[in-house]
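Q: I'm writing a short explainer about Tetratricopeptide repeat protein for a general audience and would like to include a description of its predicted shape. Could you first generate the structure from this sequence?
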Amino acid sequence: MYGKAFAPEFQGALRNLSVNTNYEDALAKARAEVARATEENDGLALSQARLVESEACRRLGRIAEADVAWRASFRAAKAADEPGAMAWALWNGGTLARQRGQMTAALRWLGLARDAATRAGDVVALGYSVAGIAETLRIRGDYAEARDLHEKLLAEARKRGETRHTVWALEGLAQLDRNAGDLDAAWERFAEAAQIAEDGGDERGLAWALRGMADVLSLRGEHDEALRLLAKGEQICRRMDLSSALAYNRKMRGNILFRACWYGEATRTYEEAQKMFRAINEPRGAALAELGLLKSRDKLGRPRPATERDLIALRDSLDTRELRHTRKMVQDALDELIELVA
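A: Of course. Here's the predicted structure. Afterward I'll give you a sentence or two in plain language.
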């Protein structure tokens, strides 16, 4: 029913790169192609190579380099009057903005990517742009709108038999189910996503699906099996140099250890995750890791007033417009702590 996964963001001379290519290797090949396209004054090829450079840098956590590369990709595409290439560059810029916690900018760039893809008649770029919008809305806490987009994307992806898009949409819907407390529905979607990703050779999608399955298992109290699945996902992240995914994998490990009441190990794990997120300038992940860290230290007997003070500082550091859902999670933890003290 579904074909083998491919990476449409790998274009031009780099289209033969596997969806599972290690990102250090992809970056080296992209930069070699940038040099060739620049020398030959090939605008479209330059835009395509810069896109791969940006995506590789983003996945590796080299945020400043990714920012320079996607903007260069867009400029080259615009100069060459290639709206399809412009759409892909804008998609990448929007995805990078979301990773940096800049949700308003992400929605702006992704909206422009959607418009450019529509003008170009690039169905795949259009799908990626709309999927990016759905994911950004979900992370920001706009669940109803995100669910509607994810469901439409899932139906379209199933119709065309696209492995990566199907997996992406299933994982988005599964996360919405999990957030709504419907663990059975979340498990079914994560498990289906994992199976489709594995069958289609989409290791990136598989790593995220395994993380989701581990989350659901731990919420059901099956902590050892959850850690086993998470370790399998970690191996994929390390093999492909997926810095952001690896940091979220580590943060989820902290969550599972916390739920299992292994607070000392959870504390050390959250500290590792926080360092990883800070190294790649990902504020949302860093805030979530710090939240877990504060809750773990509280369980280990840290004075409550100190924890309350730090939770307030963390809450106030989060922009209400950009990271309001993350801020709400911190506020919920603070309210729970105040209740316990009272």
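A: For your explainer, you could say: Residues 43-60 form the longest helix (18 residues).
Q: Perfect, that's easy to follow.
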